[in-house]
Amino acid sequence: MFIFEYINVNSINFNIIIENMKDRIIQIMEQEGMTSARFADSIGVQRAIMSHILSGRNNPSLDVLLKIITRFDYLSTDWVLFGKEPMFKHQQQLTKIEDEEIEDDISFSLIDQENEECQILSQQEEENNDKEEKIHKRSFGKPSIKSVTKIVVFYSDNTFENFLPERHVRK
Fold this sequence. Notes:
2 strands; 434 Repressor (Amino-terminal Domain); single chain; mainly alpha
């Protein structure tokens, strides 16, 4: 009778592990922003299998668990199977991702600074051209003929290009 109670306690613990496993699968799906159908497709199982697991009708098979671990290789196997922290294999991976995001932010701010500087230079150039035209009008009494000296094209991805004519022609 003692052995029977011991087995019974273990099966309760096993059911708790399986229930938590379902929660961990849901957590993975939420983290990845996936529906159950998309999640099933991504790990290569039928959608019905995933539906049965999430509804509690079936427990995940070893095959399903291996596919999850293979597809989401950044997750800790111990976390997927047993819920042991941490969730990710290497906390350094998260730090690396955060560092890359910070580097991207810095890059974008540098690009923004360059674009602002180019816009300021372009405005200053226009002001200088206006001043030169006014001086030319005062000196000769006639308006000057303008020519294009520089074209700056700004793109939506925060890049720009300068175009200079091959020669400045004044008529």
